[in-house]
Structures are given as structure tokens and as C-alpha cells.
């Protein structure tokens, strides 16, 4: 990242993801980045890599005590590696032990009452509490005034455990009142992913939610820049783990980045862009292991606006199709359908309609399973009273992202040539200038994406 672009009075919120704080060496590299940039006053960390997954496994209720203790042991080993490298300072060691004891207590309780939402959130939140505690100590040992502060002091949410909604006004008031004043004196290290409701109960924002937390804090504090430090040197034209010809994109518009995140570019949580757009904060994505490689800047406007920018994919998609002859020439059917979905807190993602059926995918942001769990028996029963319902799982959503997609001749032909031998289950095109997307069977998606990327983005 070019540190010279920041004036001394500007404010950057920097977020470091799980791999960036995976162990002591990784955390130490993050400290280099922070110390090189005086504008970074708020540091948001995720749990060390692997810890949230282990906590999720515990939250499902591990009844066999040996197995439960083994999972706790794996978490403790990750945290103690860092604590040991820090020389086991007594106060930090004592606080870490308290957090690990809480993990033990909550996981023991969930072994008998699996999935209890408030307790699950209390358990999941402990990963970020451990990493922020250790990272603040590391910064202090590097000679930098820094304090771990509990994000629940400011990150007010509703009480919807597992997928809480931030309360923006309260968050802004609390962040301005409690954090803004002291920012020049010491850097704040805080937790992504977690928040608290008005009664002080711990909540979480959904899997991968630390980017979102950092964007919300940047907005609440009026930051100039939000830096997302991760394990890739920017946002690529496709997931580099899947497509070897994918290339980093130096500059993206907010619109393009939002589409990419929504349609599966895991490097950015889908909700990250909106707070940045609202507050006019520029977003940088770079690699904490190799900051010298630069990264992607996301801004309101970009110099280049190519038709084809990227291909994204989302696995594990669920398609809900509702059929009813009552829909024929009727008024209000869709309104009723959406009212039911809204009552069950389901946000519709893609939608296509015919005279007698509606097919839709679910917004599965923050879900590990593509939103399958959102289709509760109560919802299906209510829908079943007004129409015939079909649920298909195991699909994958592919999105071609760029500019003027809906108004450029030949886009459909180039995309669908690749799909000649595949069954396309649903197509959405036309509503957005920035994407064309379709569903295919999950087992076919890798070659489809590789070939599409090759044709649209690798051929000159
Ligand atoms: N278009 C893309 N550009 C870059 N990375 C992508 C893209 N799509 C998916 N990814 C994946 O996102 C990963 C980084 O996201 P994530 O693992 O959530 O990071 P962190 O733990 O830092 O939050 C990368 O390792 C990469 O495999
Ligand atoms: N630790 C949380 C939140 C998060 O955003 O993590 P990461 O930044 O490593 O994706 C999770 O794994 O869901």
C-alpha cells in the first residue's frame, strides 16, 4: 500500500483477516504494516485462522467430552503459540485463560442444549476476543501505544443472533462518543464479526462478517480509508484458487466491487461496500504477507470501465420455485409471497417469473450452507398454503461482472457459447448494468467458470 497517500490527519480503519493473524509471525507482519502508516488508528481483527470453524463445531453440541476437549485443545494451541512468542506476559496470559475458560463453559453447556442462539454467539465471539487481546500486546511490545477495546462498547445491533443487523445511528453515536476522542493517543485494536444488542447480549454478524464490522466502524468514525488486509494481493478477476489465469484488478468501482462480493468473491463480505459508499470512504484490499505487491483500490469512479471485469461464483445455492394457477392475471400474489418471505427474514436474491410460477434464490450472506437453513418448516408450510413449492439444492451461481453488460451487443452469445453442453437452470440479465448471472448444477461449475474466464478475460 502506498503509505504516502495519507496525510497525517487522515484516518484509516485497517482490518486483518484470519490468515493475517493466524500465528505470531503473521501478526508481526501486520504490525509492520500498521507501524508504517500513522493514519491507521483503528485495527479490526478476525479470529486466528481456523478458530471460528472450531468454535462452530463446538457450538453444534459435542456430547462426547473427549472430543469436545480435543477441539478446545486445538484452539488453545493456536492461541498459546502466540502468547508464548510474546513471552507470556502475566496480565495477558490471565485474560486469555479467562477467555478459554469461557469457551469451555459455553461449549459444555451447548453439548446438552445444542444450537441455543444466544450462547452460540457468546461462544463464537470468543475467537476475536482472543486474537485482539494478543495483537494489541504485540503492538505494545513493538513500542506502539495500543489498547484492545471491546467492540461491544460501540457495535450496537438488533437481537437477531447469528445474523444480527447493526443499528447505525446508535453505532455512530457510541463510536463518536466513546472512541473518536482518544484515537490520536493510542491505536485501538478491536474485534470484527461481533456486536451487542441494547441489553448487552453478545451477537454476531454472520460468517465472514469482520470486513463488514470494519466498514461500519470506518463509517461511524468518518474514516477516509478502509484497508482490508488478507491473503491475496487484491481482488482478482476470479478466485485465484480456482482459475490460474485470474489477475488482480488495480481499481474497481463501488458498483463492480459490490456485485463481485454479492456474487461470491469471498475476499470481500457482501455488506462491506454499502457503508463505504454511504460515507465516501475509499477501500483498499491487499495482502498482509506481501504489502509491497499493492492491491485493489475501490472508489466511486475508475479510469477504466471494461465490459468484462470478472467472473464470480457462489456454491451451495438453493432454488425455491413456487407455482400457482391463482397467479394468472391476479393482483397482489407477488406482494403476498414477498410478505411471507419478509416475515421469515428472508431476503430474496435473484428472481425470475412466468405467469404461473416464480423462481428465486435466497440471499445467503453470512451463512455456511448457502441459506438452506433459512427454509424452515414453518416457512414452507406457510408458502404451501398459497402455492405448490419446490426446493432444489446443490446448484451454483455464476456471475459475469463488468460494465454496460445489459446494453452491449454480443455479451449473451459469448457467455452462452461456453454453456452449450450444460443445463442452465435460471438466467438473470437486464436488471443490472453490471452483471449477467445464471445457475448451473454444482458439479459442473468449476469447468464452466474456468472456460468462461478464459474466453472473456484471458483472450486478447
Ligand atoms: N475474486 C477474488 N479475488 C481474490 N480472492 C478471492 C476472489 N474470490 C474468492 N477469493 C478467495 O478469497 C480468499 C480471501 O478471503 P478470506 O479467506 O475470507 O480472507 P480473510 O480470512 O483475510 O478474511 C482468497 O484466498 C481467495 O481464495
Ligand atoms: N472469524 C469470523 C469472521 C471473519 O470475518 O473471519 P475472516 O476475516 O477470517 O473471514 C469467521 O470466520 O466467520
UniProtKB/TrEMBL annotation:
How is this protein named in the record?
A: Aspartokinase
User: How far does the signal peptide extend, from start to end residue?
Assistant: none
Binding positions for substrate?
52, 128
User: Which top EC class is given?
Assistant: transferase
Keyword terms of this UniProt record: Amino-acid biosynthesis, ATP-binding, Kinase, Nucleotide-binding, Transferase
Its GO biological process terms?
Answer: homoserine biosynthetic process; lysine biosynthetic process via diaminopimelate; threonine biosynthetic process
In alphabetical order, the GO MF annotations are: aspartate kinase activity; ATP binding
User: ACT domain location, by residue?
Assistant: 322-394
SUPFAM superfamilies linked: ACT-like (SSF55021), Carbamate kinase-like (SSF53633)
What does it catalyze? L-aspartate + ATP = 4-phospho-L-aspartate + ADP
Part of which pathway?
Amino-acid biosynthesis; L-lysine biosynthesis via DAP pathway; (S)-tetrahydrodipicolinate from L-aspartate: step 1/4; Amino-acid biosynthesis; L-threonine biosynthesis; L-threonine from L-aspartate: step 1/5; Amino-acid biosynthesis; L-methionine biosynthesis via de novo pathway; L-homoserine from L-aspartate: step 1/3
One Gene Ontology cellular component:
cytosol
- Which Gene3D superfamilies does the record cross-reference, listed alphabetically? 3.30.70.260, Acetylglutamate kinase-like, Aspartokinase, catalytic domain
